[in-house]
Amino acid sequence: IVAALIPNLGLVISLVGAVASTALSVIFPPICESITFWPDNLGRYKWQLILNFLIITFGLYVFIAGTTLSLSNIFNCIGNGAQCND
């Protein structure tokens, strides 16, 4: 049913991958670590909190870039109709 409703399933899979894999592998682990060790076990000068913030910032950048690129590919495919390749 899904293959019939979505003719270019590869584009949807790339969108789901851009959203879910970035969030699960890059953004959520430093958030969980910061919550777990808050406020006493974040190292001298709170270096672990700073590192986690940098990782989350990088993850948000990758999340936005990947999602934007995937959505752009989907919109280009819809605009071109049947000429779209995965």
Architecture overview:
The chain crosses the membrane at residues 6-28, 49-71. This is Amino acid transporter transmembrane domain-containing protein. The chain has three helices and no strands. The protein is mainly alpha-helical. The chain has a domain at 26-72. The protein has helices at 2-5, 9-37, 47-80. Helix 2 (9-37) packs antiparallel against helix 3. It is elongated.
Can you describe this structure in just a few lines?
The chain has helices at 2-5, 9-37, 47-80.
Give the arrangement of secondary structure elements.
Layout: H1 2-5, H2 9-37, H3 47-80
Helix pairs in contact: 2-3
Q: Kindly state the percentage of residues in helix.
A: over 70%
Identify the quaternary structure here.
Answer: single chain
Structural class designation: mainly alpha
State which percent range the strand residues make up.
under 5%
Instruction: Catalogue the unreliable spans.
Output: none
Instruction: Report on the biggest sheet.
Output: none
Morphology call: elongated
Mean pLDDT level = 82
